[in-house]
Amino acid sequence: MAVPEQVRKEADMAMRTQVSHWGRTRLLAIAVLFIWTLIALVLPFVALLSIGSQFDGAGAYTFVSEGMLILMLALVIWFTRRQRGIDGRFAMVEED
Amino acid sequence: MALQPYGRRDNLKSMTNAFWLLLGSVAAFVVVMMIFEFVGMPKPAISILFIIVTLIIYALIGVASRTLQIVEFFVAGRRIPAVFNAMAAAANWVGSAMILGLTGSLVFMGFDAMAFMIGWTGGFVLIAVLFAPYLRKYGAFSVPDFLAARFGGVGVRLCGVVVLLVSGAALMTAEFHAGGLIFSRVFGIDFQSGVIATLVIVVFCIVWGGIRGATCTQSAQFVVLAAAIVLPVTLFALKLTGNPFAPAALAGLLDQIGALEAGLGIGKGNATTTFGELKRIAIPHIEAFANYSTVEFVAISFGLMLGTASMPHVLMRYFTPTSVPDPRRAAGWSLLFVVVIFSFLPVAAALVKLTILTEVIGQPLSGLPEWVAEWASQGLVQVSDGNGNGRIDLTEFFMAPDAALLALPQIGGLPFVMTAIVTVGVLAAAISTASGLVLAVANGFSHDLYYRLVQPSSSTAKRLVLARIALIGVASGTAWLAINRSMDILPLIGWSLSLAAAGNFAVLVLAIWWKRCTRWGAIAGMVSGFGLTLAYLYGVRFLDWQPVQGLGELSAGLIGVAAGFVVAIGVSYLTPAPSRETAEFVDDIRVPRGQSFMERERAAERIREAGSTR
Lengths: 96, 614
Hints:
Chain A is mainly α. Chain A is built from 2 helices and no strands.
C-alpha cells in the first residue's frame, strides 16, 4: 500500500510545482505587458513634451525612433532571462 | 543551407557554416561588382547580374532543401536553431511594402510615421510573452491546428482557416505588387509580367522544401535585405556627416533639417500637398500629430502591434524551433534583426529629405541632380517651375513616397552598385514575405482543410503533393489579385493586420491563458471579432462611413479584439466548462519541457499500430 501512497504524493508534488511555476510565469507576463504598455504608450508622449519645448526636439525624435526599439528589445531579453530563471527554479528547464 | 538528418547541434553547426559562406560570398560579389562598375560595366547589366545571382542563390537553396517528409515540409522537422529561425522570421515579417512604405512615410508624414515603427516591432514582445512557447509545446502545424486541438470540433478550425486566408491574401497581394514593380523597373517589362516573375520565383523557392526550404532561403534573404539597408545608409551618412554609425548621426541630421525647414516655411500655407499619388514636403520632419490625432496615433500603434502578434505566417515561425523554450529566444532574436533594419530607416528618411531640401528645393530647373530627371521619367517624381521664378520651390517638387528608399543611393551620389543592392534587398523582402504567406495559406488548404477535415487517412505522399498544388494555386491566385488590385498598399497592410488581430488575438490569448474558455466561446469570439472588423473596414473603404473615434483601416483590429474578448468570455460562461482532458491539455502546453503534445500522440499512434499488426 506504500507504493500507491508514494506515487500519489509525487503526483501531488508535481501538480503543486506546476501550479507554482504557472503562477510565477503569469506574474512575470503581467509585469512585462505593463512595461510594454509604458514603452509603447507613455514614453512617446514624454518625449513629445520636449519636442514641444523646442529644447531638444531632434533628441526626442531620435529617442522615439531608435530608443524605443532598443527598449522593446531589452524588455524581451530581460523577460527571456527571467522566465528561464523561473523555469530553472521549478526544474522545468529543457536542455538544448 | 540544406538541413542534414542529424541532431540539433549538428544543424546549428552546418547552418552557421553555410551562413558565413553566404555572407562571405555576398561580400565578395559586391566587391567584384564595384570593380566592374569602376571599369565601366553598363548599369542595366549590373542590376540584372545582381538580381540573377541572388535569385540563383535562393533557387539553389530551395532545391537543396527539398524533402519528402511531412514534418520537414510543414515545420522543418522542428530542428531550426533559434537564430536562423529568427532571421527567417525577420525576413518573413519585414516585407518590401513595409520598408518602402515606412521610409516614404517618415519622409513625408513626419513624426506620425513612428506609429508604424512602434506597431511593427512591439508585436514581437507579445509573441514572446503570450504565444510562442505554448504553440511550440503543442506541436501544431498551423494556428487553426492548435485552435482545433485546444477547443475540439470543426468550427474553430474553419474560423481559423478563414482568418488565415483573408488576412494572408491581403498582405500577399501587397508583396506581389511590390515584386512586380521591381521586376518591371529593372528588366523594363510590363507590371503584369513582373508579378508573374515574382510568382515563379516565390513558388520555386518553397515548392521543394516547404517551410524547411523557406527558412533557409529566408535566412539568405535576410542577409541580402540587411545589407541593402545598412550598407547604402551607412555610406550616405558617412559621406554627409562623417559618422560611420548611421543611427548615431540621426540627431545631427534632424537639426540640419529643422534649420532648413524653418527657413523655407514648411508647414505654413495651404498649397496642395499631393500630385496624384505623389507627395510634397509639407510637414516639418519632427512635428507630431500633423496627420493623426493623439488617439489615432495610439490606436494605430496598438492595432499594428496586436496585428503583428496575430499574423498566422509570423506565428508559424515559432512552430519550428528545436525546443520548447527556444521560441522565446527566437522571438527575441527576431526583434533584434527587425530593430537592426528599422533603426536605419529613420536615418535613410532624414538623409533623403536633407538632400532634397539642399540640392533640389531652391535650385534652378537646369541645375537639378541627375536622379530627379531619371525618376521623373518613370513618373515617380514631378518637378515644374510653375510660378516661373526660375527655381524649384517647395510646392513644385513631388515624389512617390515608395521611391524614397529605392532612390536613396542615387540621391546620395553613391556608386550604382548600391542602387542594385537596394533593389535586390527590396526584392528579397518581397519574395521572403510572400513565401511565408503563401506557405501559411497553402498549409491552411492542404493540412487544415483537406487532411484534417476531408481525408484524415490520406498518405504522406498524397499530402505532400496536395500541399505543393495548394502552394502553386494560392500563389497564382494572389498574383492575379495583385495584377487586378483596387487598393493601395498601405490600406492592404491595414486590412491584413486588422483582420488577423480581430480574428486571432483574443482567442489565442484565452486558449492559452484561461482554461475556462470553451469551444463555443472561441467560435463566438472569432466570428464576432472578425465579422465586426470586416464590416467596419468595408464600410469605411467602400460605403464612406466615418471612422469611429479615429479608428481607421490601420487600427480597426482594436474593435474586433475588444469584441472578441467580451464575446468569448461571455459565451464561455454561458456554456458548459471544458472537459478535464482539455484542462490537462492546457496544463501540458504550459510546461516548458518534454515532448510536444503532437509528438506524444504520434508516438502513441505508432505503438497502437505496431500492436495491431502483431
